[in-house]
Amino acid sequence: MVNVTEIKASRQGYGEGLMELGEINPNVVVIGLDLTESTATHSFKNKYPDRFFSIGIAEQNGMSIAAGLSLVGKIPYVSTFAVFSAGRCWEQVRMSVCYSNCNVKIAGSHAGLTTGPDGASHQATEDIAIMRVLPRMTVIVPCDAVEARKATVASASIYGPVYIRLSREPTPVITDKNSLFEIGKANVIKEGKDVGIIACGVMVYQALLAAEILEKENISAKVVNLHTIKPIDEDTIIKTARDCGCIVTVEEHQVMGGMGSAVAEVLVKNYPVPMEIMGLEDKFGESGNANELLEKYSLKDKNIIEKVKKILKIKRKGG
């Protein structure tokens, strides 16, 4: 059985990470954009009011302010919904933050389909693509709240722009305080030899569920938590391809330009194998229960199993 310790949103882990940073690094500040409760930054605001800057509904202005604060030695964490931090602010992120190589950390909360009832206008399903394409940007997609806390704390230890993708909906926590986390280093959380399932964010749990069912059918699936999309762990991806001979990637994001595309870029240059990329097929989301939306857009464990069986047929035929 997949070990689930609790149900918790990764945005809550982000808030806990900020509190931890607040205690150990006086240069950490938070930019609030009228979504303090939603982005779980309220505890930091209450404890460190002189290090919390409420900009209001002015996301582009907030991003520029963050760039300025970084130039005087602060480490600003800009906290808002992913559709705003990655979308509305993209020009400011590109020029003020990345081009200038500012030490700004960006939290994109409420990302993916599991934003649920908020609908397509608030479901960022393109953010991995548009953030990873930016030079100097690090992109992290934690799989649960515990990993989100670790990612937040770790982001302060590297210089330069960082984007952390977070979910709104409480999801199963499958890591713990002892689980390894290193920016740029993927975690193999289940060994296997027949197929490699590479997932990020909330889809890691679905991948584990699928692997568990596949095991009962004598299909050995290796599950990789690719929490850092950029810089990508080429060594683990290539080894997974060599060990398993085929790959299925799973993400709560558009299939074009996202994590699966990043994996494909690595494999096509180094070790091409049969591959399936799972995600949104050039579609917007819609309002609904998070679980129902994953069902509708074929991002559940049963859908991963179908893709695994499909790719195994191709593998057995010799690609």
Structure write-up:
Helices cover 40% and strands 19% of the residues. The model has no long low-confidence stretch (mean pLDDT 96). With 319 residues, the protein is of the alpha/beta class. Helix 3 (59-70) packs parallel to helix 5 (90-99) and helix 9 packs across helix 10 (259-270). It folds into two domains: 7-172, Rossmann fold (3-Layer(aba) Sandwich); 187-316, Rossmann fold, CATH 3.40.50. The chain contains twelve helices and 14 strands. The chain has a seven-stranded mixed beta sheet with strand order 3-2-4-5-7-6-12, sandwiched between helices. Strands 9-11-10-13-14 form a five-stranded mixed beta sheet, with helices on both faces. It has helices at 10-24, 42-47, 59-70, 82-88, 90-99, 127-132, 145-155, 203-216, 234-244, 259-270, 290-296, 301-316, and strands at 7-8, 28-32, 52-54, 75-81, 105-109, 138-140, 162-165, 171-172, 187-190, 195-199, 221-225, 228-230, 247-254, 275-280. Strand 13, helix 10 and strand 14 form a beta-alpha-beta unit.
Q: What is the string of SSEs from the N terminus onward?
A: EHEHEHEHHEHEHEEEEHEEHEHEHH
Number of strands: 14
The whole-number mean of residue pLDDT values reads: 96
How are the strands of the largest sheet arranged? 3-2-4-5-7-6-12
- Strand content is 15-25%
The first-level CATH class name of the largest domain = Alpha Beta
Number of structural domains:
2
Major beta sheet summary: 7 strands, mixed
Q: Roughly how many Å is the radius of gyration?
A: 19 Å
Number of helices: 12
At CATH level 2, the architecture of the largest domain is 3-Layer(aba) Sandwich
Give the CA-based shape: globular
Q: Which residues sit in consecutive blocks of at least 5 with pLDDT less than 50?
A: none
Could you give me the name of the CATH homologous superfamily of the largest domain? Thiamin diphosphate (ThDP)-binding fold, Pyr/PP domains
The amount of helix comes to 25-40%
- Remind me, CATH topology of the largest domain? Rossmann fold
Distance between the termini: 32 Å
Oligomeric form of this entry? Answer: single chain
Derived from helix and strand composition plus strand pairing, the structural class reads alpha/beta
